[in-house]
DNA sequence: CCTTTAATAGTCGCAGTGACTATTAAAGGG
DNA sequence: CCCTTTAATAGTCACTGCGACTATTAAAGG
C-alpha cells in the first residue's frame, strides 16, 4: 500500500456478481439473467453490475439485488460476501475484478428483467448449464458455502417467510443438502438451541394439507449454531 | 455484467493486503511494514501492493508475501483469501479496492523491508495499535478467521515446521485461542482424526528441554476436521 | 541415583444425537 | 358421525465424543 507513485498500475473495472438463491417447489432455485450482448450473448449469467464510484461493493450488491428481483424492500434479506474473482482473462473485453455475493430469499417472487438484463428467470440449481464468464464456478462456490453455513449458523431461516413451521424449516435443510432428516430429531435439535427459533404465541396453524396443523415459529436472535447441525455423512467424511 | 457500454464506470485501483501470522515465543505475531509516505506516513500497515495487469489477486498476494518476508520459497505456505474491502473512502487519495488475504508461517524468519516498504517487523498481535487505512479492521477480521478455522480444519499444522510434536501442535491452539487445553484429551482427539497428523516412523525425538522426548509427526492429508475441535467456551456461546 | 519434567495411557460420567416407537390432533371420505 | 389418513409431537435407548481427572513411563540434569 506504500508508494503509489513508484508503480504504474492499470485501472480495473470492479463489478459485483450475485448468486441469489430461493426455494421453490421443493427445489433450490437460482436467479439468472440472459445476456443481451457479446460476449456470451444469449447465454445465462448471474445478475450483477458495476460498482459505482461512491458506493462500497455491499451496497452495489444490494442495489442489484433489488433491481433484478423486483422486490421493493431488500433491506432485510440475507446478503453475504463470498469472495473475489480476479483472473485476468475472466472477461475477454477488459480487466474486470468481481466481488461475488450470495443472497437468500424466503419465497420466489417472479423475477423481472433488471434495467440492464434482457430477461431474468428463476432456474432450478440442478438444471443450470454453461453460464457466461466464470459464473459457473462462482455459482458452485456459492452453493457449497450456503450448504456449509446451514451447519453452523441459523441461516436456514433466511429461506423461510417471517412465520414458518418446523416442517418448513426442515425442508430447507433437506432441499439444500439433498438428504432426508429424521423429523423428531430435527425438532429436538432446533428447539434445544436457544435463540434459533421462537414460538409464535397465538398457537396458530398453517398446514395446507390434511394432517395435524403445526405450530408457527419465528427466527430467533441467535446467529450461530453451537453445537452445529451436521449434515448426514454420505460416506467419505468421518462422522 | 451486461451492457458495459451503457454505463460509465470509474476505474478502480485494486490492491492486495496481507495479514501474515506466525508464532514466536509463544505469542501470535503479525508482519507489519512502516509507511514511508503520506498518507499515514510513519504509521504501521499491513504489507500489500497493487495487483498487476496480468496476474490474479492470489498471485499478487503470494508475490508480496515473498517480497515482504524475504523467504525464497513461499509456494508451500498457507494463503487464503479473506474478503474484499471496498469502502469508497478507505484510501484518501483515490478509489482503492483491496482484496485481503491471510497467510500462516511456521516459524518467523526475520523480516526484511520489501522493495516498497521502509521497514518490516514482526509484531505481537496484542500490541498492535492504530494501523493505517482500515488495516486494523482487516487484521481483526483475519485473526478471527484464523481462530475459527482452527476449529474445523487442519490449519494448525500450517504454523508448525514440517515435523513437529503434539505438544507443539497443542501450543498452536493454545496460543491462537488464548486458552489452555488438556494434554491427554488433545492427544486423543488429534490421533483419532484420520489424516490430521501421521507419525514419523523413525520414532525420532526433539524436545529441547528436560522431559521425556516426544514423538514426531507430519501434517496428514486431511484438510477438514469432522467433528470439529471446538475451543473452550469462555461463557457466552452455548456449549 | 534421585528429582524434575513432560509425554503417554487409561478411567468415569455426561451431553448430544441417530435410530426408533408411540401418541395426538387434525382433515376428508364414506 | 365414524374411521382412515396424514403429519406433528412425545418419548426411549444405546452409542459416541469429549471434559475432567488419575496413573504411568521415559527421558534430562544435578
Write the CATH architecture name of the largest domain in chain A: Alpha-Beta Complex
> What is the succession of H and E elements of chain A?
EEEEHEEEHEHHEE
Mean pLDDT of chain A: 88
Helix content range of chain A: 10-25%
Number of helices of chain A: 4
| Amino- and carboxy-terminal Cα gap of chain A | 45 Å
* Annotated CATH homologous superfamily of the largest domain in chain A: Nucleoside Triphosphate Pyrophosphohydrolase
Largest interface: A-B, 62 and 62 residues
Oligomer: homodimer
Strand content range of chain A: 15-25%
Uncertain runs of chain A with pLDDT below 50, 5 residues or more?
Answer: 235-239
State the CATH class of the largest domain in chain A. Alpha Beta
- Shape descriptor of chain A reads elongated
CATH fold title of the largest domain in chain A: Nucleoside Triphosphate Pyrophosphohydrolase
Total strand segments of chain A: 10
User: What value does the Rg of chain A take, in angstroms?
Assistant: 20 Å
